[in-house]
Amino acid sequence: MYMVTIDAEKCEGCGECVDACPAAILEMVDGKAVVTGSETDCMGCETCVVTCPHGAPQVQEL
Ligand code: SF4
Ligand code: SF4
Predict the structure, then answer these.
(1) Which parts of the chain register pLDDT below 70?
(2) 39 lines ligand 1 (CB under 6 A)
(3) What is the predicted pLDDT for the residue at 52?
(4) CA distance between the termini of the chain
(5) This prediction's pTM
(6) What is 5-39 written as a DSSP string?
(7) Beta-bridge partners for 18
(8) Residue 1 C-beta-side C-alpha neighbours within 13 Å
């Protein structure tokens, strides 16, 4: 199981991680990417990590 967190301080609101996440668990809320889906659906693919130009998403294996 994986846990994804997005650092709101670093997020610039481009929305790229939201479009790129294959599990569709990320959404834009008030101009920031947040995890709105079930965290257990995260595949740990790190697509959000590599897509983000600002290093905001972090994925941890639990
Ligand atoms: S690691 Fe992959 S599945 Fe998990 S939130 Fe990031 S893009 Fe989505
Ligand atoms: S790719 Fe990075 S900067 Fe863009 S919305 Fe996602 S977390 Fe924010």
Answers:
(1) none
(2) no
(3) 98
(4) 6
(5) 0.94
(6) EE-TTT-----HHHHH-TT--EEEETTEEEE-S-G
(7) none
(8) 5
Check: CB of residue 44 under 8 Å from CB of residue 2: yes
CA of 31 to the centre of ligand 2 (A): 10
Query: Residue 47 is which amino acid?
Result: T
E strand or H helix that includes residue 20? helix 16-20
Domains and CATH numbers, the chain: 2-61 (3.30.70.20)
Q: Which of 11, 25, 28, 41 to mutate to test the pocket of ligand 1 (most atoms within 8 A of CB)?
A: 25
**Token pair listed for 43:** 């595949």
Spell out the residues 6+ positions from residue 54 whose beta carbon is closer than 8 angstroms to its own.
Answer: 10, 11, 12
Q: Is 40 helix (H, G, I), strand (E, B) or coil?
A: helix
